[in-house]
Every structure is written in structure tokens, then in C-alpha cells.
Specification:
heterodimer; A: alpha+beta; four-stranded mixed beta sheet; 8 helices; 41% helix; elongated; B: alpha/beta; Glutaredoxin; Rossmann fold; Ubiquitin-like (UB roll); 5 domains; five-stranded mixed beta sheet; 22 strands; globular
């Protein structure tokens, strides 16, 4: 997460104390005037290869989210400028698709597959156990910022149902009672 | 030297080497096949210089022929991964762990011995060592999937050794566009993505359209939960998809193609990217392809997680950078599609069949399947069967035969239903087991082939809950454009949630049917039009389960936790018994009971205070308390 280090320096608040800001994350509602020029340039360089009228909106959003993990407001302003359109159009497109987030996410994404095969084999119980273990609702970030649980529709690994995908690793088949063990693997990594 | 592994009569080895093929499909990788591959590759590369390899290969010995470790795309036998196959002997080892690698090298490769414990165990408990003896493989006709699991998807040489790009050369140099689409039309190829529209006809329309600029799009936005054939095709044989696309471009007069692929399929994206680069280098894409003067460019567009984008007009809106909301047809994409230009959209599986048809001819293709549904279809079979995975079989097999290919029901579970075609499809019951599966037969039964996802359910599955599950999906994925779909699916979902919580009310079944018909009639695109199918088809074949939930607070499958929910303690009237005497109605102190004389009465659980006076009043004991 090299970019996060640069973000630490980048929030340009009224009482600018960049070194003291160790939240490490740009506030989701920071507009283009609230962040430093380098940050804007970073986004511009991410977007540039894709910017080609409105057809470039989705690839641009994907490039920015790959880097930041979500879409801060200012990035959508930059995309609008680069793709020669309005921020309303960019946000309208982004908010339509479930792939895009407007709030920072946990370090690890825990995706519980709720496709048909997984549903039939007990995905609901897995989700409940994971929520209990992490003490967090679906879609929210844990207090330590480590995990976000979400439900996804079919990851195409039906032969292994029921599955949980943590970051890019597919785990399956999973017994509901053992589901929390998967998380341990990633918690240990941090320790 | 032991020679227990014999060369099969039909050796297929693309380059003369013995190949230890390790499946690197998504299913196997998540079971650890990448580590198995690394370990095997290391051991085997150490072997090459050794002269104690005992595997026999026809008249030659290994030292002359060489042995190599290969990564392949999905074999389809996902549940038993990681899979390791030794070709050309077709020896298959299942559920191979890193700890088995040494054994495989020592015992099988060095001593020619089959390791029984790693072989597939069939339903009778017999160990089968070769794919040629396992019914999952022998019962299939792998055409579109022909190369998946056999060749290295990252190697264009291997694809060429399997006649890859021959069809492209034939089409471009020996046929004119009209001959190409007519051949495809004659073959009877129909769209594999769900619609079942004749592909050749679609190409003809696009070819007829008058425009300088035309597009073809490969639809790999495989959003149906329970379907993963497009993922396997792109991961396992990406060059076939490219070849099909270029041929489609030639037949329709398009010079630009895109593949629209789900962002949820990172491996597939990686493989197709790599294959596109190679195809450009080899002259199969770009300008003046194979020296024929035909130009074709190919790019990737990633989806962003919206099921409705599998619908073609929504898909094009998405490529144009907009929210993926469908638009009315006509104009059809063949006249005015992407950037208002004529556009042909084909499913990935459809395109994978095209090179085969050009290579072998329409007649050859027609030997598979039925008159109206020619060829084969891949099915992703999951749920309560022994061997979940991907299989390709001729169209027109019965449901029962399909389940048999998948190894039959899991353990001693009892068949109850199959859900076919994802959220647009429907549920079929036991009486449909001997029905041949084709585009049209399914439509007649209120289901649809869809992309070929087939979820088999046993008697512990609640059909009302299955319907609720799919409505939850479509309600979530409705783009919101048409009120009938946006609001109607929400209303249907509310009712289904109530029923599965034990709060179903008399009249709910009629309301569901009514809403279903309205949504079907009043929605623009396929998503809305077919959204009620899972409910309507379960109502058709399993109405008694709905009734049990509503009237008896019972889930016959034992899946739903009923018991009144928030209405615990209130009273209900058994509709089948009520004679409409109005005695309870008169006795109720809070006017919670409604009903005309002589007709079934209802107690509104929201108003009921659980005093029990109605029970006293009822002359026929038709009233009971919710637990």
C-alpha cells in the first residue's frame, strides 16, 4: 500500500498538520481542493491511459479503486475532467455498480459467496458466524480497520461450495463452524 | 522395468512428450493445486537427466520423448481437485496434495505403478485410474471444452497443434462472409448465453447493416449464480475465443471486437490479456490478418458488478461508461448498438463453437443434439450431486441422464428438484426427470436453459426458500428503470420473506401469481421479464409447500424456522376447514377477524391479541395458536 503513505501527507486541512495526520486515509468527502496537487496528479496519471470520453469512466474508476481501495470524492472530480464529462455522470455510473465503494474498506475483504450452490450448502450460516467472530455487520469495517465482510453473487467456484473469498484467495468447501478459522490466517499475518 | 501403464489406443499428446498435467483452474487452485504444480515441476525437472523413468510410452522410452509438467485450464471435475493427469496414458489422480508428489514421482513415474489411493472412487467403490474409465468423462462430448484441461492455455503452439487457427485461415482465405454465416446458420448453432437466438441469423443481420464501423462483442459477463462455463473457457482455452471472435468479425464486417468480462474473474482476465498479446504477435489480430487483408482489433472491457449488464443493451451502455440500464429494442444492436453502430453480441461458449463448425462443417455439428437444438451444451452442475463440476453433453439428454453424468445424487440423498437457468430460469420437479433438455422444452415448462447453470436439490431443500433466494437476487440486481420490475420484485420478495418467516397470509399465493404476471408483462428487458420464473415455477410444481408454510406453519423440508415469528401466540384459521360461519368473527373482541358469510375467514395477526375467544367460538376446531 505505497499509495497510503503518500496519502498521509496529502490531506490539506485548514489547520494543516500533515505530519501529525496518521489516519493514513483520505476522507471520503475530500474534494479536489482539499487534497494536495501530487494526489491529484497521482489520480490523473492513473486515469490518463483510459480517458477517452465517457467510455473511459468505468476503466478509470477501476484504476483508481485498485490504487486506493475506494473512490474518494476528489478522484471522481478528476475523472470527470479527464473524461470530459460531469461529476454527476461519473458518480451516477459509479453508484450503479456494486464493485465501487465510496468509503474506505478494511485491509482484507472477506467475501462470502451467496450464489445458488453456496446458498443451498449453507452460506447464510457461514456469514453469521463470520459476523459474530469479527463483531461487524455485512458491509462494515471492523474497528481495527482489518476486515470488511461482504456478500457476493457467485464467484464461479461452485464445485467448492460453499466458499469464502478472502482478498483473492478462494477457500472452500467450508463448514460453517470452522469459518472463523479462515480469518485467523489473515490475522496472524498482521501480528 | 515395470510397464503397468500402457499406451492407450488413441494417444493424444500435443508434442510427443509425456505430460504431467496439473489443473490450474480456479477450483483446483483454491484447493492448493498451484503448490502441487510447483512441487511436481521441481521433482520432474530433476528427473529429466535421470534414466530410471519407468513409464512406458508406446514403442519409445521416455528418455527419448521427454517428460514435462504442464499447467492446464479447468478439467471440469472441480469437486475432486487438485487434479493431476498423466498423458497420453490418461491416468487421473484426484485430490492430490503436496505430500503425494514424492509418491507420484517415485511410484508412478519411476516404477510405473498406479497409486490406488489417489484414483477416483466410483459409486460402487471401485477405483478408476484412467479418465477413459470414469463415466464423468466418457459420457461427455467435449467440443467447446475440447481443449480445456488438455492444453496449456498460455501456449499458442499447443493450440495450433490442436488445429487452432485453422478455421480462421479457412474462413478468411477460402470463404466469403456470406458463406461463413450461412455455414453457422446451417449448423443450427443457437446462442449459448440464454436467449437461444440462431447465431448465423444474427450475423446475417449485422452483415446486412450498412455502416463503415461495426463491432462484435464477446459476452463473458457470466452473472448467473451457479454457472461458470464461460470462466472455464476463457481460462482454459482463450485462443479459441479469439479465433471465434475474428471469424464473427469477418462474417459481420466488423473490424473491432471487445470481450466484456466480469471483474470477479481475475484469472480469466489475465489469460485473455496474455492470449490477445500473443495473437497480435502471431498475426491473428491486427492489420492484414494472415495476409488476407482483413483487419481486426480486440480489446477487453471489464464489468463492474451488475448482473443486468449481461443483457446486451445494458452491456453496451456499460462499455459506453454509463449505468447499465437496458434500452428498448428495436433498434436491435445489429442495426444500432455500441456507439450507435451495428453490433453483434455473442456469448463466449457460442463463439468457442464457431471454429469447430468452420473446421468440420455444419453436418458434423448437427450430429450432436436435436433438430432444433443442435450441438452440445456445457452445464455447470452443482448442489447435491456426487461430482459437481463442468460438463459438456449433447443437447437433448434428459435431466436424469445429466445427473447421472454428474455421478448421481450425493450419498443417499433423495432427488427433489433442479433449478436450471439461474435467476431467469425455473425449478423442475421429479416428473421432469425424463424430459429432454433443449432450448424449447425448458421454455415450455416455464424454465429456461439460461447459460446452463444447473443446481440439483435434495429433499431437505425448501422450494419456497429457493424462490425467495432468487427473488432476493433479482430484486437486488434490478436496475430500477421499469417500475414493474423495481417495485414488483420487492413486493414479491416481501411476501416470500413473510411466508418463510411463518407469517404468510391466505391470498399470498394468488398475490404472487398476479405480481408475477404483471412483472413479466410490464418489464423491458430479460431480467424483469423472467424474474418471476423461479417463483411461478415453484408455485406450479410445489404449491403444496407454499400452502404448508402459510396455513400450517410448517416447512416440509424443515429448512425454514417457522413458528409464527413476530406473530407467535396469535391465532390462525385453517383455510381448508373453515366453513365461514362467522362465529369467531362475532366473538373477537378486537375485530381482528375478517370474512364474508360462507367464505374462509382470516385473522389479522397484527391485530390479534391472542385471547383465544375465537377458539372457544369455533364449532369445528379450525382455529389454532401459532407457536
Amino acid at each position: 500500500m505505497a499509495s497510503l503513505d503518500s496519502i498521509k501527507q496529502s490531506v490539506r486541512g485548514s489547520d494543516t498538520d500533515v505530519d501529525g495526520d496518521d489516519s493514513g486515509i483520505i476522507p471520503a468527502d475530500a474534494g479536489i481542493d482539499d487534497v494536495c496537487d501530487e494526489e491529484v496528479e497521482t489520480v490523473r496519471s492513473l486515469v490518463a491511459p483510459h480517458a477517452d470520453g465517457e467510455g473511459g469512466i468505468i476503466p478509470s474508476l477501476q484504476a483508481v479503486q485498485n490504487e486506493y481501495g475506494y473512490l474518494p470524492r476528489f478522484s471522481m472530480q478528476v475523472i470527470a475532467e479527464e473524461c470530459d464529462t460531469t461529476i454527476a455522470r461519473v458518480f451516477g455510473t459509479a453508484s450503479f455498480y456494486s464493485q465501487f465503494y465510496f468509503e474506505p474498506r478494511g485491509e482484507h475483504s472477506v467475501k462470502v459467496c451467496t450464489g445458488t450452490a453456496c446458498h443451498v450448502k449453507g452460506a447464510d450460516d457461514i456469514s453469521e458466524n463470520l459476523q459474530e467472530e469479527l463483531d461487524v455487520e455485512t458491509g462494515e469495517v471492523t474497528d481495527d480497520g482489518q476486515f470488511t465482510i461482504e456478500h457476493v453473487r457467485c464467484v464461479g467456484a461452485c464445485g467448492l461450495a460453499p466458499v469464502v473469498v478472502v482478498d483473492d484467495d478462494v477457500h472452500g468447501p467450508i463448514e460453517a463452524e470452522n469459518a472463523p478459522e479462515i480469518i485467523d490466517e489473515y490475522t496472524d499475518e498482521e501480528a | 522395468m515395470s510397464q503397468s501403464i500402457q499406451r492407450p489406443s488413441d494417444p493424444d499428446t500435443v508434442d510427443g512428450n509425456v505430460r504431467v498435467v496439473v489443473c490450474q483452474g480456479t477450483g483446483c487452485v483454491s484447493s492448493g493445486s498451484d503448490e502441487v504444480y510447483d512441487a511436481l515441476a521441481e521433482e520432474i525437472s530433476a528427473l529429466e537427466s535421470s534414466d530410471d523413468v519407468a513409464l512406458s510410452y508406446g514403442d519409445g522410452n521416455l528418455e527419448e520423448l521427454g517428460i514435462e509438467t504442464k499447467a492446464s485450464g479447468c478439467h471440469g471435475f472441480c469437486e475432486l481437485g487438485p487434479l493431476v493427469r498423466i498423458d497420453p496414458m490418461h491416468v487421473l489422480y484426484t485430490q492430490v496434495g503436496v505430500e503425494d508428489v514424492e509418491d507420484i514421482v517415485e511410484r508412478t513415474i519411476k516404477s510405473g505403478e498406479i497409486i490406488d489411493e489417489l484414483c477416483f472412487e466410483d459409486a460402487e467403490g471401485n477405483r478408476q485410474s484412467r479418465t477413459d474409465d470414469i463415466s464423468f468423462y466418457t459420457e461427455q462430448n467435449r467440443l467447446a471444452l475440447g481443449n480445456c484441461g488438455d492444453i496449456d492455455p498460455e501456449s499458442v503452439e499447443e493450440y495450433r497443434l490442436r488445429d487452432g487457427y485453422d478455421a480462421l485461415e479457412t474462413a478468411l482465405s477460402e470463404m466469403d462472409p456470406k458463406e461463413v454465416y450461412e455455414e453457422v446458420e446451417d449448423a443450427g448453432l443457437r446462442g449459448r448465453g440464454g436467449g437461444g437466438f440462431p447465431t448465423g441469423t444474427k450475423w446475417k443481420f449485422a452483415n446486412d447493416a450498412d455502416s463503415e464501423e461495426k463491432y462484435v462483442i464477446a459476452n463473458c459477463d457470466e452473472g448467473d449464480p451457479g454457472a461458470f462455463m464461460d470462466r472455464c473457457l476463457v481460462e482454459g482455452d482463450p485462443h479459441r475465443v479469439i479465433e471465434g471472435m475474428v471469424i464473427a468479425g469477418y462474417a459481420t464486417g466488423a473490424n473491432q471486437g471487445y470481450i466484456y468480462i466480469r471483474a470477479e474473474y481475475p484469472l480469466a482476465i489475465e489469460r485473455i490479456e496474455q492470449a490477445i498479446d500473443t495473437a497480435y504477435e502471431e498475426g491473428y489480430l491486427g492489420e492484414d490478418i494472415l495476409g488476407t487483408g482483413f483487419d481486426f482489433d480486440f480489446g477487453i472491457e471489464q464489468g463492474a458488478g451488475a448482473f443486468v449488464c449481461g443483457e446486451e443493451t445494458a452491456l453496451m451502455a456499460s462499455i459506453e461508461g454509463q449505468a447499465g440500464r437496458p434500452t428498448p429494442r428495436p433498434p436491435y444492436p445489429a442495426q444500432s448498438g455500441l456507439n450507435d453502430q451495428p453490433t453483434t453480441i455473442n456469448n463466449v461458449e457460442t463463439l468457442s463453437n464457431v471454429p469447430l463448425i468452420i473446421d468440420n462443417g455444419a453436418e458434423w455439428f448437427r450430429q450432436y443434439g436435436t433438430e432444433d437444438s443442435a450441438g452440445t451444451k456445457t452445464f455447470a452442475v452443482s448442489g447435491d450431486v456426487s461430482a459437481t463440476g463442468l460438463m459438456e453433453i449433447p443437447m437433448g439428454l434428459t435431466l436424469e441422464e445429466i445427473i447421472e453424468v454428474a455421478g448421481g445424487m450425493e450419498g443417499d440423498s433423495e432427488f427433489k428438484a433442479v433449478q436450471i437457468g439461474g435467476p431467469s430460469g425455473g425449478c423442475l420437479a421429479e416428473k421432469h426427470l425424463d424430459m429432454p433438455v433443449t432450448f424449447d422444452s425448458l421454455q415450455e415448462e416455464g424454465a429456461m436453459l439460461g447459460s446452463g447453470g444447473l443446481v440439483v436439490m435434495d429433499d431437505e431443500t425448501c422450494m419456497v426458500d429457493v424462490a425467495r433466494f432468487f427473488l432476493d437476487f433479482t430484486q437486488d440486481e434490478s436496475c430500477g428503470k421499469c417500475p414493474t420490475c423495481r417495485i414488483g420484485t420487492k413486493k414479491m420478495l416481501d411476501i416470500l420473506e413473510r411466508i418463510t418467516n411463518g407469517e404468510g397470509k391466505p391470498g399470498d399465493i394468488e398475490r404472487l401469481r398476479d405480481l408475477g404476471d404483471t412483472i413479466t408483462e410490464g418489464s423491458l428487458c430479460g431480467l424483469g421479464k423472467t424474474a418471476p420464473n423461479p417463483v411461478l415455477s415453484t408455485l406450479e410444481h410445489f404449491e403444496e409447500e407454499y400452502e404448508a408454510h402459510i396455513y400450517d406453519d410448517e416447512c416440509p423440508a424443515g429448512e425454514c424456522e417457522l413458528g409464527g415469528g413476530s406473530h407467535a401466540g396469535t391465532y390462525k384459521i385453517a383455510a381448508a376447514e373453515c366453513v365461514g360461519c362467522q362465529q369467531c368473527l362475532n366473538a373477537c373482541p378486537v375485530d381482528a377477524i375478517d370474512g364474508e358469510q360462507g367464505e374462509t375467514h382470516e385473522i389479522d395477526p397484527e391485530t390479534c391479541i391472542g385471547c383465544g375467544q375465537c377458539v372457544e367460538a369455533c364449532p369445528i376446531d379450525a382455529i389454532s395458536q401459532r407457536a
